[in-house]
Write a structure and sequence with these properties.
204 residues, alpha+beta, 2 domains, six-stranded antiparallel β-sheet, three-stranded antiparallel β-sheet, 13 strands, binds 2-acetamido-2-deoxy-beta-D-glucopyranose
Length: 204
């Protein structure tokens, strides 16, 4: 019986042909995510840094991974912080978040991106910068009294109309952003689920 189970397990691991990486701290690292070249699929590179699992943008800025849903091919990373009394995302000097064009990951359509401290010319783009935009609630409730409060802000829903590989910040555009996953219009800011949801192409 044990032998049979052994054979079946061997068969399964042979068919899938790949091993998952060891845990990073207490976090499971499911296949195809890869923390080193001996496990996972190296195209799906993530980093285990002092027991914290991280994802790197094309510019090599690191974002902590908050959750992983391997059966839905999704993971959620933490949006960059906005240092106190400024309105610059911590990834500002990298231009925000960007994935390489050939990355198997993309920014999923479940994200609501909020941009802050935007310049007027951004109003011409297809963003929602109205006084009822979600970003107003963030400025009034979360960032009240801090750097982004009162700045021109906008939000957009990630959909196919926008690139799924980039969230851009720059001087003369918008200088800070945050992102909420599965935001419903009635949700109060306390229940917002901050994160950037990434989806990956299943390996063949
Ligand atoms: C907002 O952005 C402008 C440049 O577009 C910058 O000069 C200003 O310092 C920013 N505001 C804050 C509070 O960081
Ligand atoms: C902007 O977003 C708010 C909140 O979802 C919505 O109520 C409003 O209709 C939107 N405005 C435009 C111009 O799309
Ligand atoms: C992201 O990738 C997934 C899997 O390849 C695909 O189904 C989805 O349409 C892509 N989403 C966007 C916004 O490009």
């Amino acid at each position: 019986m044990m032998l049979m189970i052994f054979f079946i397990l061997t068969l399964i691991s042979h068919v899938s042909g790949h091993d998952a990486c060891p845990k990073c701290g207490s976090i499971e690292v499911p296949y195809p995510l890869s923390t080193n070249e001996n496990c996972g699929d190296p195209r799906y590179k993530v980093f285990c840094n002092n027991d914290i699992l991280q994802f790197h943008s094309a510019e090599d800025f690191s974002y902590n991974i908050i959750s992983i849903n391997p059966s839905a091919y999704k993971l959620v990373i933490s949006p960059p912080s906005i240092p106190k009394n400024t309105c610059y995302s911590s990834d500002f000097s990298f231009g925000g978040f960007r994935l390489n064009d050939d990355s198997p990951f993309n920014i999923s359509t479940h994200n609501t991106v909020m941009l802050f401290n935007c310049s007027d010319n951004i109003l011409l783009s297809p963003l929602n910068c109205s006084s009822t935009s979600f970003c107003r609630q963030f400025e009034e409730k979360v960032q009240a009294g801090s750097g982004c409060a009162g700045t021109l802000c906008c939000h957009f829903l990630k959909d196919s109309a926008m690139t799924s590989h980039r969230i851009r910040v720059r001087d003369g555009g918008c200088t800070a952003y945050t992102c909420v996953v599965d935001l419903n219009p009635g949700d109060t800011t306390d229940s917002w689920n901050y994160g950037i949801e990434l989806q990956w192409l299943p390996p063949n």
